């Protein structure tokens, strides 16, 4: 089912080998998580640093039919998975520029004092 969803999302081609993956996280697979933040000091100055991690969430209802003729079976359900992940580091001492990712801006907003 995840392979069919991967094809629908354009992450893999229909002719690809399903054993090579769906382009989505498989059941039991966890996204890597960066460690928390910290502080760095030198020259009498302390910097507050925030490490952040993110995933691209895929959540959808599905209806999938297998087989043909009278042996045809249809199943429906809901899947929540992710397709890629990333992370980064921001300094609370300097505002982020427009080129920074949405995840970076959210990490800054949530972690750095105003």
Q: In words, what does this structure look like?
A:
10% of the residues are buried. Strands 1-2-3 form a three-stranded antiparallel sheet. It has one domain (2-111). The termini are far apart. The chain has 114 residues and is mostly beta strands. It contains two helices and three strands. The protein is elongated, with a radius of gyration of 21 Å.
Q: State Rg.
A: 21 Å
Provide the spatial order of strands within the biggest beta sheet.
1-2-3
Task: Tell me the series of helices and strands, N- to C-terminal.
Answer: HEEEH
**Number of beta-strand segments:** 3
Low-confidence stretches: none
Helix content range: 10-25%
Shape: elongated
Beta percentage is 35-45%
Explain briefly what this protein structure is.
With 114 residues, this protein is mainly beta. The chain has one domain (2-111).
Descriptors for this entry?
114 residues; mainly beta; three-stranded antiparallel sheet; 15% helix; elongated
Note the topology.
Blueprint: H1 2-8, E1 38-42, E2 45-66, E3 73-91, H2 102-111
Antiparallel strand pairs: 1-2, 2-3
